């Protein structure tokens, strides 16, 4: 028997442990070389572990266990063939009924005890054939329905009884829901814990202030509508709004360099590059992958960069290199319908731009009231480093570039 240990791979000097959040295989499965085996959540990224050889796998660690870098979580018997897995599947049918009785939720067990129904005798409608609370209740109703065999006897009131009830009879109290029905508890993932720590840290350490403005999206929307088909034909993907805002931010950072800086102790660090972070919402939490050298990219390059890192983040394949650095962040709550918000700075950066939903609103243009697609902009900034004049000027520069995109070409 040739056994190969499956170990947690190294993922950078700053990561020493993580939580094994998911197994892609079951104990005893035959796996192929390079097949994904598990997902590991750390305080920064979620990564996959793959098989270094083909064979039969034996799992050593349960889902939810905190593991160290280099720890063995499974072993692979590389001498096993695909045929050796067949006998293992045979007892599955025999254990099906046992699984029904042993893998029940607290609610199912409670209802089973109250009704006298054995869950093992009930056909489950839940995931994987599991018996649900509704399945047990339905079985109980079916069991009790045939009980009456004749007409119910009439109740004749006595002469001393009141002719009409003086109060409505109280209904039989419903059984109290178990804590499993009303609440669930689960440990925060390392990634969620890190997000929470960073957000609280940013609010405690920075003198955060937010300034607002609104922008007329008509020019950008007209430009996209006019050139969208040609853009898609040439590049294979659509022209979105984020590339316009990214270019507008780079232009404003070049005009107001004080915002492209950060505080390190008692030192001001001035950044002379333009790596822009774009907040991406994933099932595991908010991530901010970085688009590098945005001042050197055209609109297509920025759109492609955003699409690539967003896909990696949502697929759980983001790397530390994708998240590292960044001098400024853009977050778009408008994709979820947010009309206005005060975004929190992504430390150690000094500012973040919040975009919001585009809504048609009446506005005054050249003395006339017209309906225009308007968006609120919010710039949160660290007042320790950035003065109000700089912040307001920066936001006005972004507004001007979006309302007149020709400014982006001329860098004015």
Automatic annotation (TrEMBL):
SUPFAM superfamilies: CoA-dependent acyltransferases (SSF52777), Peripheral subunit-binding domain of 2-oxo acid dehydrogenase complex (SSF47005), Single hybrid motif (SSF51230). One of its GO terms (cellular component) is cytosol. Residues 103-140 form the Peripheral subunit-binding (PSBD) domain. CDD domains: lipoyl_domain. It catalyses: N(6)-[(R)-dihydrolipoyl]-L-lysyl-[protein] + succinyl-CoA = N(6)-[(R)-S(8)-succinyldihydrolipoyl]-L-lysyl-[protein] + CoA. Pathway: Amino-acid degradation; L-lysine degradation via saccharopine pathway; glutaryl-CoA from L-lysine: step 6/6. The keyword Ubl conjugation does not apply. Its cofactor is (R)-lipoate. Binds 1 lipoyl cofactor covalently. Residues 91-101, 157-179 have a biased composition (Low complexity). The keyword Iron-sulfur does not apply. InterPro entries: 2-oxoacid_dehydrogenase (IPR050537), 2-oxoacid_DH_actylTfrase (IPR001078), Biotin_lipoyl (IPR000089), CAT-like_dom_sf (IPR023213), E3-bd_dom_sf (IPR036625), PSBD (IPR004167), Single_hybrid_motif (IPR011053), SucB (IPR006255). It comes from the Bacteria. Its EC number is 2.3.1.61. Keywords: Acyltransferase, Lipoyl, Transferase, Tricarboxylic acid cycle. GO terms for biological process: L-lysine catabolic process to acetyl-CoA via saccharopine; tricarboxylic acid cycle. Residues 91-188 are annotated as: Disordered. Residues 3-77 form the Lipoyl-binding domain. E2 component of the 2-oxoglutarate dehydrogenase (OGDH) complex which catalyzes the second step in the conversion of 2-oxoglutarate to succinyl-CoA and CO(2). Belongs to the 2-oxoacid dehydrogenase family. PANTHER family: DIHYDROLIPOYLLYSINE-RESIDUE SUCCINYLTRANSFERASE COMPONENT OF 2-OXOGLUTARATE DEHYDROGENASE COMPLEX, MITOCHONDRIAL (PTHR43416:SF5), DIHYDROLIPOYLLYSINE-RESIDUE SUCCINYLTRANSFERASE COMPONENT OF 2-OXOGLUTARATE DEHYDROGENASE COMPLEX, MITOCHONDRIAL-RELATED (PTHR43416). NCBIfam families: PRK05704.1, sucB. This is Dihydrolipoyllysine-residue succinyltransferase component of 2-oxoglutarate dehydrogenase complex. It comes from Nibricoccus aquaticus. The lineage of its organism: Bacteria, Pseudomonadati, Verrucomicrobiota, Opitutia, Opitutales.
């Amino acid at each position: 028997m040739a056994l190969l240990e499956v170990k947690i791979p190294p993922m950078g000097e700053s990561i020493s442990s993580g939580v094994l959040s998911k197994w892609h295989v079951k104990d005893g499965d035959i796996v192929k070389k390079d097949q994904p085996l598990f997902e590991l959540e750390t305080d920064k990224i979620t990564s996959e572990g793959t098989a270094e050889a083909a064979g039969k796998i034996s799992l050593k660690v349960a889902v939810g266990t905190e593991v160290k870098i280099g720890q063995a979580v499974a072993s692979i018997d590389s001498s096993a063939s695909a045929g050796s897995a067949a006998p293992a599947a045979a007892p599955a049918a025999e254990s099906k009924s046992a699984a029904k009785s042993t893998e029940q939720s607290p609610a199912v067990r409670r209802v089973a005890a109250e009704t006298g129904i054995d869950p093992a005798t009930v056909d489950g409608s839940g995931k994987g054939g599991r018996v649900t609370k509704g399945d047990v209740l339905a079985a109980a109703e079916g069991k009790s329905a045939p009980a009456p065999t004749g007409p119910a006897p009439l109740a004749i009131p006595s002469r001393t009884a009141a002719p009409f009830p003086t109060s409505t009879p109280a209904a039989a109290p419903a059984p109290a829901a178990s804590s499993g029905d009303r609440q669930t508890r689960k440990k925060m993932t390392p990634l969620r814990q890190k997000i929470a720590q960073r957000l609280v840290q940013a609010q405690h350490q920075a003198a955060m202030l937010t300034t607002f403005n609104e922008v007329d999206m008509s020019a950008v929307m007209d430009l996209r509508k006019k050139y969208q088909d040609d853009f898609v034909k040439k590049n294979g993907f659509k022209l979105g709004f984020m590339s316009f805002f990214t270019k507008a931010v780079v232009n404003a950072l070049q005009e107001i360099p004080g915002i492209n800086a950060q505080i390190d102790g008692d030192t001001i660090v001035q950044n002379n590059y333009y790596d822009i972070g774009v907040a991406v919402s994933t099932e595991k939490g908010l991530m901010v992958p970085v688009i590098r050298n945005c001042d050197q990219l055209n609109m297509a390059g920025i759109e492609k960069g955003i699409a690539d890192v967003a896909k990696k983040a949502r697929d759980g394949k983001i790397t530390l290199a994708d998240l590292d650095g960044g001098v400024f962040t853009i977050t778009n709550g408008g994709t979820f319908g947010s009309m206005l918000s005060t975004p929190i700075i992504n430390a150690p950066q000094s500012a973040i731009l919040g975009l919001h939903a585009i809504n048609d609103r009446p506005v005054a243009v050249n003395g006339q009231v017209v309906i225009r697609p308007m968006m609120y902009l919010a710039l949160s900034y660290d007042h320790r480093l950035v003065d109000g004049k700089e912040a307001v000027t920066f936001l006005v520069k972004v507004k001007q570039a979006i309302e007149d995109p020709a400014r982006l070409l001329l860098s004015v």
